[in-house]
UniProtKB/TrEMBL annotation:
This is Solute-binding protein family 3/N-terminal domain-containing protein. PROSITE patterns: PROKAR_LIPOPROTEIN. Pfam families: SBP_bac_3. It comes from the Bacteria. PANTHER family: AMINO-ACID-BINDING PROTEIN YXEM-RELATED (PTHR35936:SF19), MEMBRANE-BOUND LYTIC MUREIN TRANSGLYCOSYLASE F (PTHR35936). Residues 40-275 form the Solute-binding protein family 3/N-terminal domain. Keywords: Signal. Coiled coil: none annotated. InterPro entries: Solute-binding_3/MltF_N.
Length: 280
């Protein structure tokens, strides 16, 4: 009886030890668990910014950002990407913690991000800002001077909000009033429709055009390119570690190929209805 008890105890201890070893694996260990030589990376995307990223009717991440990552995957037989829709408010934390390995969700560069994260050298989208206003307005246009004295609804901490704040500081005599809002473009457009705001400046014209068309607002609202003097250039985003450095080289080499062979242009025209592929 004692012998059976000892054997049982040893067996349980062995199982616990085995479980602990499994739990102690690093993120890099887990990526090559099948011994096939294929490294698996998890791609995080917001899934709520069409046509760049969305969750399709099958419940799968889709859109231009995902199509680009799949094209990169196709060029690299020793790499496999898994895709995970991750809310914008938690996507950077997911990258830092190792839950995901790369963000493909229209990330632009700024000083804070460059200090914390790793950017590839080559972007995958170049587009422009847009200004959205009621069609019957004749006092608003693509000219930046037309926003003087107007109320502009803009997302708190968004790229165009930062631009507006800097513009107001540099041009106090031509400043606009900023109405701060969350990042929901539909809500911001409603502020324009109901007259509480004169206009909305969208970071990416492609997205504004898409939302207007999908929600049937293109008969009521005008969407024009807005000359901020700066194109919106977007990149994949990586961790500043060894895994991130490896993935950065894969992405840079692949994007160079996709730009040179015209694939990135084709994907842009398919998903975005225009050529927004960067030039080398």
């Amino acid at each position: 009886m004692k012998k059976k008890k000892v054997l049982s105890t040893l067996l349980i201890a062995g199982m616990v030890a085995s479980m602990m070893v499994g739990c102690g694996k690093s993120a890099d260990d887990k990526k090559e668990s099948d011994n096939s030589g294929v490294t698996t990376y998890t791609v995080g995307t917001e899934g709520a910014y069409p046509p760049f990223n969305l969750v399709n009717e099958k419940g799968e991440p889709d859109g231009y950002d995902i199509a680009v990552m799949k094209a990169i995957d196709d060029l690299n037989p020793d790499v496999e990407f898994k895709y995970e829709a991750t809310g914008w408010d938690g996507i950077f934390t997911a990258l830092e913690s190792g839950k995901i390995d790369v963000i493909a969700s229209q990330c632009g560069k700024n000083e804070e991000r460059e200090q914390k994260y790793l950017f590839p050298d080559i972007p995958y989208t170049e587009t422009q800002a847009a200004i959205v206003f009621k069609k019957d307005r004749t006092d608003i246009s693509s000219d930046v001077n037309s926003i003087a004295g107007k109320t502009i609804v803009s997302a708190t901490s968004g790229a165009q909000t930062n631009w507006l704040e800097n513009y107001n500081k540099e041009h106090p005599d031509k400043a606009a009033d900023i109405m701060y809002a969350d990042g929901d473009m539909s809500k911001m457009l409603q502020e324009v429709i109901n007259g509480r705001a004169d206009a909305h400046i969208a970071s990416i014209k492609v997205t504004a055009d898409y939302v207007l068309k999908e929600q049937g607002l293109d008969n009521e609202l005008e969407c024009l390119p807005f000359e901020t003097g700066d194109e919106t250039t977007t990149y994949m985003l990586l961790r500043q570690d060894e895994s991130g450095e490896k993935l950065k080289k894969i992405i840079d080499d692949s994007l160079k190929t996709l730009i040179e062979n015209g694939t990135l242009k084709e994907l842009s025209e398919k998903y975005l209805d225009g050529d927004y592929a960067p030039q080398l």
